[in-house]
């Protein structure tokens, strides 16, 4: 089983960016922990990051070979109809994840355009959100496989 992980804008700066909110792990550290869990769960992961909305849309369009998508759309969570529509257009369950609890932060972060097309959302568990997201993605994909 293959799972696609997509990271949105500014997440390449993790480790140096607003450490009080996002912690000190770099994206490479987080990716290593995702790869480690993927091995334990016996699934393949492809991990990507882009600062560009259209590139993220293209990644979603090209996700047909994947059983599920784990996505941290970052700031695009709150603004991107294009990413929302791309997720809606492909027949792949998406798990939306956030490092911080977006509902505890500024009001503009309380609205996610993605959550209505995601299978579910995980928000506020620090880098662990990615691991919870991967576990959720595998569970959902297995359930979907069982029903097809
Ligand atoms: C984020 C939350 C977003 O509001 C913010 O723009 C990010 C990161 C998170 O993982 O907590 O860049 O998605």
Provide a brief overview of the structure:
With 148 residues, the chain is of the alpha/beta class. It contains 5 helices and 5 strands, in the order βααβαβαββα.
Strand order in the sheet with the most strands? 2-1-3-4-5
- Shape call: globular
State the CATH architecture.
Answer: 3-Layer(aba) Sandwich
CATH topology: Rossmann fold
Largest sheet: 5 strands, parallel
Q: Name the bound molecules.
A: 1,3,4-trihydroxy-5-OXO-cyclohexanecarboxylic acid
Give helix and strand order, one letter per element, not per position: EHHEHEHEEH
Q: Average pLDDT value?
A: 96
Count the domains: 1
Number of helices: 5
The CATH class designation is Alpha Beta
In words, what does this structure look like?
By secondary structure, the protein is of the alpha/beta class. The chain has one domain (2-144): 3-Layer(aba) Sandwich (Rossmann fold). Helices cover 39% and strands 18% of the residues. It is built from 5 helices and 5 strands. Strands 2-1-3-4-5 form a 5-stranded parallel β-sheet, with helices on both faces. Strand 3, helix 4 (81-89) and strand 4 form a beta-alpha-beta unit. Helix 2 (27-41) runs parallel beside helix 5 (128-147) and helix 3 packs parallel to helix 4. The longest helix is centred in the C-terminal third of the chain and has 20 residues, at 128-147. The model has no long low-confidence stretch (mean pLDDT 96). The structure holds 1,3,4-trihydroxy-5-OXO-cyclohexanecarboxylic acid.
């Amino acid at each position: 089983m293959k799972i696609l992980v997509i990271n949105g804008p500014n997440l390449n700066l993790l480790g140096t960016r607003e450490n009080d909110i996002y912690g000190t792990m770099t994206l490479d550290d987080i990716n290593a922990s995702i790869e480690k869990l993927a091995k334990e769960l016996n699934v393949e992961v492809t991990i990507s990051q882009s600062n560009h909305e259209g590139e993220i849309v293209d990644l979603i369009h090209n996700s047909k070979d994947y059983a599920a998508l784990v996505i941290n759309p970052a700031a695009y969570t709150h603004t991107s109809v294009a990413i929302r529509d791309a997720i809606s257009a492909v027949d792949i369950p998406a798990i939306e994840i956030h490092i911080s609890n977006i509902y505890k932060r500024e009001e503009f972060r309380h609205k996610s355009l993605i959550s209505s097309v995601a299978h579910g959302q995980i928000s506020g568990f620090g880098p662990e959100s990615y691991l919870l997201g991967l576990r959720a993605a595998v569970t959902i994909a297995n359930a979907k496989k069982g029903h097809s």
